[in-house]
Amino acid sequence: MEPKATSAGYRLMMPPTVEKSKSKSRFRPEQETVAVNGHFRASIEPMPLPPFPHAANARLDRSTLRRWLMLSLLVLATGLGGRPASAFQSDDDAAALERRIVRTFGSGNHEEALELVSLYLQNWPGTPHMLYNRACGLALLGRREASAAALLEAVEHGFRDFAAMRRDPDLASMRNHETFTSILEANRRIDRGTANRQFEAWQRRYGDDYHYETDTQHRLHFATGLDAKAHADMKQIIGRQADQLTKTLFKSPPLDWCFVVVPSKNHVKEVFQRVLDVADPARTPGVYLHGTRLLVTRDIGESLRHEFAHRMHWADMDLRGQRHPMWVQEGLASLYEEYVWNDDGTIKFVPNMRHNIARRQVQAGIALSWDKLFQLEPDQFLAGNARFYPQVRSMFEFLAALGLLEEWYEAYVATFDQDPGGGKAFEQVFGLPVDQVNQRWKSWVLDRGSIDDRVDYGDASIGISGIEAGDGVQVEQIIGRNARRAGLRRGDVITQVDEKPVRALGELMLAIAGRKIGETVQLEIRRRDQRLVIAVRLEALRGTVNER
Predict the structure, then answer these.
(1) Residue 279 vs residues 5, 348, 379: alpha-carbon distances, Å
(2) Which residues pair with 297 in a beta bridge?
(3) Among the four residues 269, 278, 449, 522, which has the most C-beta atoms within 10 Å?
(4) Average pLDDT of each block of 10 consecutive residues along the chain (548 residues)?
(5) At a CB cut-off of 8 Å and minimum separation 6, what does 377 contact?
(6) Nearest to 522 by CA among 511, 514, 530, 513
(7) Buried b / exposed e across 494-519, counting CB within 10 Å, b at 16+?
(8) Half-sphere exposure (CA, 13 Å, Cβ side) for 311?
(9) 337 to each of 182, 353, 358, 393, how far by Cα in Å?
(10) What residues contact 484, with CB distance under 8 A and at least 6 apart?
C-alpha cells in the first residue's frame, strides 16, 4: 500500500515472507502488514471446503477432480483476510522445528525431512505451507500419487501460491500429473472469475458514474470516474508501461488479472476508507493490493505509474517464486513515477522531487550505506520511508542512466537465492565491491546537480491555487492578475503545460519551476465537457496558499 506520508515517500503493503535455504526454498505462512493502520491480516486462513478423500493412492475421475478444485479455489479466492492459518501453541517451537526442516531438506535427506514435517503437522495440523512441503518431499522421492494427495490437502487448507508451485523444481516430476495440471487450470479460471466479480460488484454499486472497460491483452479491468479523454489517456499510459516492463525487465506478461480503479472525486473518501481501510485518504495517492489484485489511484500521473509498476513487479515475483525486499520493490516503483518516451519507443527516466532529497542526504553524509540498506526489515524501511524512498529511486535511476538496469535485474533474480539483498548483483554487474559501487553512486548524484522543484514567493507562477482532480490540477482560487485576464476560472482542471501532461500537483510544480517571470505558457484545461487551450503569462508568486 502506498499512503503518501510526506511529499518524499509512499508506503507499501509488506510482502509475504519466503524462507530460503542455500539449496532449497521452503514456504512459511504468508502474512501481510497493512502499514497504514499497523494491524496484521493473514493471507492464508482455514476455510470450509467440500469434503475430499485424501487416500494416498486414490485416482480420481478428471471431471470430479476439476469440479472439487473449482469449488475449493472459489472459496479461497473470496477469502481476503482473517485469522492466522494456525493458532501455534508456541511460535518459537514452530519456528525452531521449521528451521530444522529447512536444513534437512537442504542437506538432501528427504526421508528425514518428511518425518520432521509429519511431526510438525502432528503439533500444528492443517498448516498449509507445511502440507505443501510434504508434497514436495514426496515428489522428490518419486511418490507421485502421495504427492498429489498432499497437494490437494494443502489447497484444501488454504495454500494458494500457485505461481511458485508452477515453477517449483521440487515438483518437476509432477508437471504432467493430472492433479498438478488440474489445480493450475482451476486457479486460472478462478483468477479471471475473481476479477470479473470485483468488476461486476463495482458496476452494481456505482452504476453509470464510471467508464468501464476490459483490456484482455494486458488482463486488466477498468472502472474510472474520468471523462472519456482522460480515461483513454490512462489506458494508454498503463498499456505502454506494461509493454515496456515486459520487454525490458520482466520478460513475461502477468498471468493474473487486475482491477484498476480511479474513483470519482465524490467517491475517493468512501473507496479509500471502506474498500481499502485507509484511515487518511487525503494522504494516500494510490494503493496496490496484490492479495486481491486491486489497484486504486487518485490520479493518473506519478501515483498511477508507481502503483502499476508494483502490479507488474508482483506478477514477476509470483512467476519466479521470489519475494524481493522492500528497497527493490519501492525503488523500481518510484523509478517509474517520472519518465519520458524517446522517439525510438524507449524510456528515459528523469528526476522528480525525490532527487533533491537524495542529493541533500549524500551531501550531509546521512545516506544509508548500501550494505545496511540491503538488510533492512520491511517495517524498518517503511518507518523511514521519507528517507529511504528518495535514495532507492536514485539508485535505480543511477543504474538506468548507465544503461545497466536490465542487466542488474537479470543478475539479481539469478542470484536471489544466494543474496536476496542484491549486493551480489551489483558486484557482478560492476565488477567492483559493493562499497565502491556505493561511492560511484554518490559521486553521480553530486555531479548531477539539483533540479528546480519549488515555486517560492517571487518566482514565476501561473497565479492559482489548486487541488488534484485525477486527470490534472483543479483550480481552487485565482490569485494572479494574468491568470484572470487569460480567462482561467475556478473549477478549471489544468491537464497540460506546453503539451506536457500534468496529472498531479507535483507534476505541475515541476513544469513551472525554473521558468522566468514574463514567459508565456500554453495550458490545456478541462472545463466541464470542454477542452480548451489558454495562454497565461507567468507572474511573480504572491499570496498565502498553494500558489503555482
Answers:
(1) 12, 36, 19
(2) 286
(3) 278
(4) 34 34 41 29 34 46 58 48 43 80 89 92 86 93 92 80 80 88 74 72 85 92 90 93 95 89 87 80 84 87 94 90 92 94 91 90 93 92 89 96 96 94 96 96 91 72 81 84 86 85 82 83 86 87 54
(5) none
(6) 511
(7) bbbbeeebbbbbbbbbbbbbebeeee
(8) 31
(9) 40, 10, 15, 9
(10) 463, 478
- In the three-class reduction of DSSP (H, G, I as helix; E, B as strand; rest coil), residue 516 is classed as coil
* Cα dihedral value 529, 534, 540, 543, nearest 10: -20
In this structure, which amino acid lies at residue 31? Q
Between CA 31 and CA 35, with CA 33 as vertex, the angle to 5 degrees is 170
Amino acid residing at 160: R
Q: Which three cell numbers stand for residue 474?
A: 483543479
CB 25 within 8 A of CB 321: yes
In which residue are the cell numbers 506494461 written? 242
The answer to whether 150 touches 121, Cβ cutoff 8 Å, is no
Helix (H), strand (E), coil (C) string for 136-149: HHHHHCCCHHHHHH
d(CA 293, CA 220) in angstroms, rounded, equals 10
Rounded Cα gap, residues 463 and 387, in angstroms: 32
Cell digits for 208? 453509470
3-state secondary structure of 195: helix
Contact between residue 444 and residue 398 where contact means Cβ atoms under 8 Å apart: yes
Round the CA-based radius of gyration of the chain to a whole number and report it. Answer: 26
pLDDT at residue 11, as a whole number: 31
CB atoms within 10 A of CB 174: 22
Q: What is the rounded CA–CA span in Å between residue 459 and residue 517?
A: 7
Q: Whose CA is closest to 45, among 120, 118, 126?
A: 126
Q: What's the CA gap between 474 and 468, in Å, rounded?
A: 6
- CB of 371 within 8 A of CB of 434? yes
